[in-house]
Design a protein that fits this description.
The protein is 36% helix and 19% strand. The chain is an alpha/beta fold. The protein has two domains: 4-211, Spore Coat Polysaccharide Biosynthesis Protein SpsA, Chain A, CATH 3.90.550.10; 214-270, no CATH class.
């Protein structure tokens, strides 16, 4: 069994390949016990050519290139790669971003040193055309996931979470958030690493922009996918929102309402304020 499997879901990101794979090659942890699984979602650019180039250059245990039928969503692409992975630890990482040199050593080292931790996530640097800033995430609290996603996309975790049945679902564009809730529901123990270990690049092709356009429905499906995790009134909100009822608005982007939020909406409707 390799120590780590890195799944790289890709669609037309060939222009970022040298930056991403260069950051992987620069890791302080050796890659000789790491398998890399590149899953291409029907790219029309030079992504496959770039992957083949780096498969010959990267000093890792194994480099696989998979080309399943086009899905148009990162979740099924990740699932396809994860189905092939055999590593002790798993990491899905988008190739338009890049790893800082100590990402793997720090994240894998944390899980290796503490068997009670199932998943490790870190702060990150966000680079946009207008500005750059460090995204400092809070220490993990399971209650946070009931209202917002406070776990970074690039989280490294034990394969037991996958083996027990956690999967990326296709009915929500907030796939990561839904995935972390599933991990928590099967007993996963999360640990925040309070240092920026990777760089997230904001650009016009980020899938997150599409997710934001489907914000309300994406959040509602997270709730309905995991009803035992949410208050029954929030489950009711999710059903009503998908029916486009006035008493079940979307609320602010990336925020699932609490029972108190929903009670206030009902009071405003009763008082004729909305």
């Amino acid at each position: 069994m390799p120590l780590l499997s890195i799944i790289i879901p890709n669609y037309n990101y060939g222009r970022f390949a040298d930056r991403f794979f260069g950051s992987l090659a620069s890791q302080t942890m050796s890659l000789r016990d790491v398998e890399v699984i590149f899953v291409d979602d029907g790219s029309s650019d030079d992504s496959l050519e770039q992957a083949r180039k780096w498969s010959a250059k990267l000093d890792c245990r194994e480099f696989s290139i998979l080309t399943p039928p086009r899905s148009g969503r990162p979740g099924p692409v990740r699932n396809h790669g994860l189905e092939q992975a055999i590593g002790k630890y798993l990491l899905c990482f988008d190739p338009d971003d890049e790893l800082k040199p100590d990402f793997l050593e720090t994240s894998v080292g944390l899980l290796e040193s503490n068997s009670k931790i199932s998943l490790a996530y870190s702060d990150y640097l966000e680079v946009a055309p207008e500005e750059s800033l460090v995204r400092l995430l809070p220490n993990f609290n399971p209650l946070h996931l009931r209202t917002q996603n406070t776990v970074a996309t690039a989280a490294l975790y034990r394969r037991e979470l996958w083996d027990i049945g956690v999967r990326y679902r296709e009915n929500t564009t907030y796939e990561d958030w839904d995935y972390w809730v599933q991990c928590l529901m099967v007993g996963g123990k999360f640990q925040h690493i309070a240092q920026p270990l990777y760089i997230h690049h904001v650009h016009e092709s980020n899938f997150s922009f599409k997710a934001e356009k489907e914000d309300g429905a994406a959040k509602a499906h997270i709730v309905l996918n995991n009803p035992a995790f949410f208050h029954k009134s929030v489950v009711g909100w999710a059903n009503e929102h998908l029916r486009r009822r006035a008493q079940a608005p979307s609320f602010q982007r990336g925020y699932i309402p609490t029972p108190d939020d929903l009670q206030k909406i009902l009071e405003m409707i009763r008082d004729g304020e909305i």
